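Crash report, auto-generated. Payload:
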Amino acid sequence: METQNLVERVLAGEPRAVARAISVVEDGARGASELMKAVFPHTGRGLVVGITGSPGAGKSSLVDKLAGLYRARGERVGIVAVDPSSPFSGGAILGDRIRMQALGLDPGVFIRSMATRGNLGGLARATVDAVAILDAAGYGKVVVETVGVGQDEVEIVKTADVSVVVLVPGMGDDIQAIKAGIMEIGDVFVINKADRDGVLRTEKELEALLSLAERPDGWSPPIVKTVATENKGLEELAVAVESYREFQRGSAGAHTRRGAVARWRILELLRERLLARALEADSARDRLETLALEVAEKRRDPYSAVEELLAASDRRS
Amino acid sequence: METQNLVERVLAGEPRAVARAISVVEDGARGASELMKAVFPHTGRGLVVGITGSPGAGKSSLVDKLAGLYRARGERVGIVAVDPSSPFSGGAILGDRIRMQALGLDPGVFIRSMATRGNLGGLARATVDAVAILDAAGYGKVVVETVGVGQDEVEIVKTADVSVVVLVPGMGDDIQAIKAGIMEIGDVFVINKADRDGVLRTEKELEALLSLAERPDGWSPPIVKTVATENKGLEELAVAVESYREFQRGSAGAHTRRGAVARWRILELLRERLLARALEADSARDRLETLALEVAEKRRDPYSAVEELLAASDRRS
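Recovered output after restart:
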């Protein structure tokens, strides 16, 4: 009953209800279940843009300016920033505060940082759920920003309709790492801080890399040069994002991509639910702490510790 | 019987057996169980150094040169590089090939890249197992390098005895991201490419950040400046790593850290085993593909899809 009321307010686009709903999905998959079942049919209307790149690439400025551009066109914009901080550093809260200064007073912009909550996982799942909530609430553009190029972060950006990879001049000597890690997820590439030395070299290297790897869908990712802090190149970025969106419509590749994303979402959620169930009993959580101590002191190996937890979980169910 | 033979050869330090054992732990947690139970009691002798930082920070050169320094002192060195590439990009293999040119012909150096294998997870667990195998095989120094600063990559580096965070000059404007993500895991900080402009500014900013955050163990992380490609500052890095290792001996903080690492390892392994069991039956994997399609087409929501998979798994067990 309470969930139904919350869902109605989310669908009506109330920012406070959206914030509340995102907190529900952050708190855990179990509580989120009823909510997300009701929200899910209303998703898929907005455009979800994923933005990733290394720290230092200026992603936050880029996201803020892109949001500003969409706002100026009268769109409501949701921003979800994934913060790889531990629960102790307070990084997400700090990030929120800094950004609120620029955009946060605008009621047409909704900003939320998602931080890791301990090591029970679920950050990627919660982030994708938060994006779905914003989408269902009528935010026409939802931007998901991930700091870092880790596996989880890459997966999150892949779930977007359009994935943008941000580079900066002077990364040439680590181009192999970029190639291996994030090249293949970029539908659009941005060279930010394009007023710096080395922009041409980076562009050439990027072009060379892109020409090596033909995409299964036949798309040639455009390269956009920006200076986000000076609001340069943002229009071009918006056009490039839109062009991929247009390309996708009706393409067979888009269907394959949606299938892969759905499969990944199911697996993330399944993993989280399985672990939560295995550690539901107080006795299981107590035993975990004891076993961790024993493994730390080399009195036990992790594998036999896990086999004990699995066997205990099986006996309870 | 076969595993026992493999374990004996690993403990005797045979590189081919080490390679074989790492392949076993890469292939899955279940097959790894018997092997790792036998290997685990022989771990904890070597020094495990974790190295992380953004792409472009020159981590690979730093790792290669540090390995060279340890080799020159007569130590056997293991290198495990975590590669966030997808199974399609071949990034890990490429990375291996490039590195083999410099160090790979030396039988006292063992190099292995660990790449993501699909989305069933287990990369972090397999990486930590690989480090344990090298440790048990008598590699006195094991260096784990992660590309990127994602959550998984941070967790992997945290499992090392000494964690090194590599920065480069000119990252000042994204210092908040660094702070949130990786500041707290650095036992030693490196400013690499220290012949570039802005090295003093980066050092000052780093010092300021470090002075803000007092560590629970009372350690003040040293800052080492290097130019890895010119072999500069590597001796100082080795000294800094050793100084933290010395500091740790007998400190209460080290015990807490080992406990947290053990707990994380158990949870990673538990998550992997639970998912593998839930998808063990052919029928479950078939159903997953069908459900993914239905979710992609918005005929189902991911939550009810997962509840169906959970219920089916419960009925089978």
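Post-recovery validation: The radius of gyration of chain A is 21 Å.
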